[in-house]
Amino acid sequence: AELPPPYTAIASPDASGVPVINCRVCQSLINLDGKLHQHVVKCTVCNEATPIKNPPSGKKYVRCQCNCLLICKDTSRKIGCPRPNCRRIITLGPVMLIPEEQPAQPALPVPSDGTRVVCGHCGNTFLWMELRFNTLAKCPHCKKISSVGSALPRRRCCAYITIGMICIFIGVGLTVGTQDFARRFHATYVSWAIAYLLGLICLIRACYWGAIKVSYPEHSFA
């Protein structure tokens, strides 16, 4: 969504000499006659508020993406939009001092700590909040799981291949070394089956980690 236009606290008189100001949402003229003592005025067309003065001491203006004008403490870092159909949580940037003669400016939402990751499935970019690689992430766009960085799938693929081959070698050794014993005690076949089954499961997991999609961050971590 586009950010709302910058505020202007300059009210100019119209042809009849009545001070007016443009609504910062719909650009309609707002009559300021008898309202110059207020900090904000309400537009009669779109019913949105427009500031005409700098905020009170210790306060600041924030314009939500739904165009709701909020007034909060200048030390606030997160605020919530009160509108029932919005309820957006806005994260605010560092507080900037505004000279008295300058109009109030809306605070821009900034992303929290994290990194932008390009999904390996759909190619869209999303914000990943973990400050480390070697993790699995779920893309909010395509809802699919991918690995952030290639180190994790490579390491796990090698581990599963190693364990799987060890289990298969154990199964082969049991098969060759206990053939005579197994003819008398048929329960020995169970140990063969367990060794081969574990090896097969590990090799299947190795194939999974070898084929998993990898998502890469736009910028590497510092």
Automatic annotation (TrEMBL):
Q: Which GO terms describe its cellular component?
A: late endosome membrane; lysosomal membrane; phagocytic vesicle membrane; plasma membrane
Keywords assigned by UniProt, alphabetized = Endosome, Hydrolase, Lipid metabolism, Lysosome, Membrane, Transmembrane, Transmembrane helix
Q: Which reaction does it catalyse?
A: a 1,2-diacyl-sn-glycero-3-phospho-(1D-myo-inositol-4,5-bisphosphate) + H2O = a 1,2-diacyl-sn-glycero-3-phospho-(1D-myo-inositol-5-phosphate) + phosphate
Main localization category: membrane
Q: InterPro entries in the record, alphabetically?
A: PtdIns-P2-Ptase
Q: Which organism is it from?
A: Helopsaltes ochotensis (Middendorff's grasshopper-warbler)
State the taxonomy lineage: Eukaryota, Metazoa, Chordata, Craniata, Vertebrata
- Pfam families per the UniProt record, alphabetical: Tmemb_55A (PF09788)
Question: What does the UniProt record say this protein does?
Answer: Catalyzes the hydrolysis of phosphatidylinositol-4,5-bisphosphate (PtdIns-4,5-P2) to phosphatidylinositol-4-phosphate (PtdIns-4-P).
The membrane topology term of the UniProt record is: Multi-pass membrane protein
Keyword Transmembrane helix listed: yes
**TM region(s), chain numbering:** 159-177, 189-211
EC number of this enzyme: 3.1.3.78
GO terms under biological process: phosphatidylinositol dephosphorylation
Would I find Heme among this entry's keywords? no
The molecular function terms of the Gene Ontology recorded here are: phosphatidylinositol-4,5-bisphosphate 4-phosphatase activity
What protein name applies here? Answer: Phosphatidylinositol-4,5-bisphosphate 4-phosphatase
What the entry lists under PANTHER family is as follows: PHOSPHATIDYLINOSITOL-4,5-BISPHOSPHATE 4-PHOSPHATASE (PTHR21014), TYPE 2 PHOSPHATIDYLINOSITOL 4,5-BISPHOSPHATE 4-PHOSPHATASE (PTHR21014:SF5)
Task: Tell me where in or outside the cell this protein is found.
Answer: Late endosome membrane; Lysosome membrane
